[in-house]
Write a structure and sequence with these properties.
- The structure holds two protein chains of two kinds.
- Helices cover 66% and strands 0% of the residues of chain A.
- Chain A is mostly helical.
- Chain A has one domain.
- In chain A, helix 3 (54-76) runs parallel beside helix 6 (145-167), helix 5 packs across helix 6 (145-167) and helix 8 (186-201) runs antiparallel to helix 9.
- The longest helix of chain A is centred in the middle third of the chain and has 28 residues, at 109-136.
- By secondary structure, chain B is mostly helical.
- Chain B has two domains: 17-34 and 606-808 and 816-1043, no CATH class; 121-415, Alkaline Phosphatase, subunit A (3-Layer(aba) Sandwich), CATH 3.40.720.
- Helix content of chain B is 56%, strand content 6%.
- Chain B has an eight-stranded mixed β-sheet, with helices on both faces. Chain B has a three-stranded antiparallel β-sheet with strand order 9-11-10, covered by helices on one side.
- The chains are: A mainly alpha, B mainly alpha.
- Chains A and B meet through helix 1 and helix 7 of A and helix 20, helix 21 and helix 22 of B.
- Chain B: Pathway: Glycolipid biosynthesis; glycosylphosphatidylinositol-anchor biosynthesis.
- Chain B: Pfam families: Phosphodiest.
- Chain B: This is GPI ethanolamine phosphate transferase 3.
Amino acid sequence: MSSTTTVTRPTEPSTIALPIEPLATDFAKIYIHIHPFLLLSLYIYRFDAIVGDPVSTLPTLLVGSVGLQLVYILTCLPPTTAGTKSNPPMLAKIGLKKKRTKQNEQGYGDKVIPAVLSLILTALLGVPLIYIFVVLFGGPLTTHFLHTFFCAAHIAFLAVLPLVYVFGVDSGRWRELAGLLIPLDDVVGGALGTVFGAWVGAVPIPLDWDREWQKWPVTIVTGAYGGYVMGKLLGGQILKGKVIEI
Amino acid sequence: MGNGVHKSEFKSIAAAFAKAKAEKEKEDAQALRGAAQDARASDKEWEVRFKATHGLIVAFFILILLFHILGLYLFTSGFLLTRLVLNNKSECPVPPIEPLGIFEPGSSDRGCWHPKSFQKAIIVIVDALRYDFTVPFKAQSAEDKPHHYHNSLPFLYETALQYPNNAFLLPFIADPPTTTLQRLKGLTTGTLPTFIDAGSNFAGTAIDEDNLVAQLRDASRRIVHLGDDTWHSLFPGYFDPNLTHAYDSFNVWDLHTVDNGVNEHLFPLLDKSNAGKWDVIFAHYLGVDHAGHRYGPDHPAMSAKLEQMDGVLKQVVDALDDETLLVIMGDHGMDSKGDHGGESYDEVQAALWMYSKKGIFGRTSSSYIEPPQSARERPVAQIDLVPTLSLLLGMPIPFNNLGAPIEEAFIGRAGNDYVNLAKVRRLTAAQIHRYQAEYALARKLDASSTALPLKLWETATEVWASVKKRGNPDKDLIKSAAIAYSKYQFETLSICRGLWARFDVSSMVCGIVVLTSALIMLGFYARGIDGDRVDVTPTFLVRGFSGMFVGATIGSVVGVSVSTLPLISTTIVATALGGNLGMISAFWSIRKRISSPTPTTLWGWVSTVFPLLLSIGFAANSFTIWEDEILLFFLSTFGALLAISSFRQKSLLDRSLGVYHSVLFIILTRIASLSRLCREEQMPYCKSTYYASANSSTSAGWQLLIPFGLALFLPGIIQTYYNRTKSLQGMAIPWLSFALRAFLLLSAVFWLLDAADDGDWLSIDNTVLKTIKISLSRIVLFATFGVGYIVYTRSPSFLNIETHTSPTANGTSTPSDPSQPVIASPARSRVSILGYSNVHGSRYFILITIWLVAVTMVQKPMGGGAIGILALQILALLEIIDHNKLTDTAVGPVVLGLLGSFHFFKTGHQATLASIQWESAFIPLRIIVYPWSPLLVVLNTFGAQILCAVAVPATVLWKQPPKKRGLLGNIAKAMATHVLFYATIALATTMWAGWLRRHLMLYRIFSPRFMVGAIVLAVVDVIAAFVAVGGVRWGFLSAAEVFGPEVGMSI
């Protein structure tokens, strides 16, 4: 146990993980606080429809959510530099410096390509991966394919999309994330919150309350949205910069 | 440590083992031991001390077992319902109330209390004859198709429809528990069963209450019994010894022996020449029940069986004379898998058909001539049979009866003889009234509970008085009298149902207190003592046992001298209290070494929170119903947490292997979760996959491949884990590569033959096949325990010596692999010990494989697959624990607890009585043999928990350095943690069952879960003490022979 309580990060010299700082624009400073509540409001607005017919409502809600998430990453987050340029995957720090000096000149055009790539990566890798996770944790294997698929899509676009945008394909960062070895910030907090919320969302399913909203996957998606907001609050504000110790 | 993958360093096995060993010992003497003579002496001293210490730790777990048994006994004695049995008997000359009119009571020839209708009766019990087996199938929707059990027994329905005066068919509702023994008690005494008898199905006891069979015997009627031998344990010596033929009732794989036996002896008795030899025949057929248990109701064997019964019943009717009453009934139904015991709709609904050639039956309405379509319409209670038969045969109604006479039997041909109906209802009600008065005397009842029935009784008496007053009362008035008496009977019955749910709360509280204190002490022992537990265990043991002894003495003295206290309970409470005080004093004596057992690390928290969440969840019926899915969720979560932890490891090897095994663990968990046996409450959200279909209890064809796959792959996979540390040495090679595979293969063949037997695929005689099957399973069980334990206890440690010349002869050697320490490096050759890095783990794992074979043998093919996956999960867990350095945490024992509970469900079980696979008792046996038959059922039911408990020491031993200090103490710690897991669950389920004792779902959900929790705790305690902790002895002794003393414990 002693060896796991005092954790030092893996010794790759290049990765000096710092919490991700949102862009310093005025819009970003405001929108980063509004964004989770906008998402949650949208979700609450559509909640009854989701309960009524998840398979047809979840995709339309997904369009809105992805839209908001794109606004969020484009306006508030520094894009990864790894993968899009030939730089080695160590640019968390350098990238930040660059952003601080250049961000005003940097047009949205430079961010659109990483954003689109993140969108594609999340859809092609994130969604199937989350789908597999949901099934591994007891989600239906042979039925409810669309239910589970849209559930996984919502979780992926909430949790994975911003991560891909800031981490890119930097495997070192991803591995650190898998070991929870990186400091909490808005993005990581939101992602962990989403996953934890979805986990908690499974709890009411077996209860015999006979409520319509207990059906698959409403509670999971609800938990994910709730967890996303909570995670952002905790990670982005209260516990920012903290590293989880095991 | 995980250095096993560096395989390239060993290219050749050079020296022969004997030579190398001699060489090694020489080296050992220099390098590891010091002077050889001193070493011998200290070896001997260490060995004696080790054996003593080890024995004390085993004894400590026995002490814990004692605490648990005391607590569970106390709780159970207060929780399982008790009804005061009155020994009063009804007497023929003493009717409960003055009869009406000219009838003179007291002669059993004319009828004791009421004119009798029949001199003789044949009562046929077709075990598990569900009501819907007897009525024609009517489709509710277009997709509704008849099942195999439909339309195969039309005779009863058709007769009732065509000859309503001769026959009637009604749903016949049982009071749960729906086990045959309980049912027979209800069907003969007319009173309600109590739960405590449910478990005594393996050892029935004689009925000493007043009952119909005893009344018949006392009236010198000659009673014959044929069939199910449960009757003889209930009514020993009641039956005519020459004509009676009983058959073993528990061999559920045998569909025909009992039925053919009954037929063989029944029909000669029906012959006119034998008519004078008997008065009442009880014939009990078991084929339908056994077909249900073996195949499930929706199987061709069931329709064949029902068709056979149809023919038999027709023959009985043909042979019947006019003076004989024929009753055909089921004693309970069966669920969709053909099992029974609980209180679901399908289990309680049986059929009742009464027939006589006299034609005295009637219906109050012509619409009642057609028997009800489902058991929900116009059902009668099974206890109603008792007053009905008693009065029809001219017997007094048994004293404790609570049932009502069945309307159809007394209403007369025209269906309007309300005078007769009112008379019999009045008699029955009066007997109930007399019984209630006696019961109230024997056991103080509060006035409020008896007020309503008393009022109803008075009302009925008043109505009757007004009937008597008028010389020629009209039909409506008599009808209202009949209804008034019926109301009284009904109300009393429902009050009794509530009343006998009477719990002894003080005893239950005592039990919970004992269990709680045992839990706290175990918690401190497991997680709250600093340093090696080996030093402190003797103190606990001595003080705990002496405390118990003193307590038992004081308790028995107090119990004898104070007459208001019950002796047994007082003694038990005092024993437990004394033991507690002893333990507390032991904790006090080592108080400096005690720390709070509350967790301080994340792993500590996780290992605490998840069992607690599970325990809290058992307070809700939904979480209890869905326990299997919750365990899947928890295990996946643990797997994910272990994967995260693995990602944090610094060494690439630890990281990659840790992540690999964590992911493997999660995937295996999910694969195992596909094996499901749903309980009724999980419907319709659950699909059973354990058997071929939801309505059968046989395996599908593809499932028969699973045991063969197991035999093919599992031994090889285990060997790869051994190979990683070069531990595949010595006896491990023949055991793992040959014996294990051979035993698993034999068990696979067993299940193939079993399926062939079920499906009649082979043209071999059934008895021959049965002999082959029994021999196969006996060989496997004897061999795995016999040969396995010999290998495990006698074999030296799985080590070998390798000498190899270094290709680079100069001094600069490559960094050596620490798992194969170099003993000596002369200039040209190096000698290393193969298997060094997992010397304890590889040895101990053999014990796990022994139990693996035994558990697999008694599981159905699907369950065998689940156990195979469990073995892989245990291996993955051991690797994860090693790579994440979690040996000292509670993770291993707690995850094993979750795994054991999870695979309980995956081996086709649920926390319900109906899911017990009784037939597993007959895998290696033909008949019930004590104690083996119950032990086999336990091995089948709790196989997963047993295997996981056996695996607990491996979490401490796997890949640990041979001379690591305090291993024995750590094993005690891990085992105590594991037992703590089950003790927490058992305490929680106990508390919830006690707290929710008035809950609607008590018998369906909370009570069975409590019983599972309690039995699992006791089983795991026994396995922990005798198999797991007891089993580490040989490993340490053999390791000490190689590595010298101080292996496992310091001197």
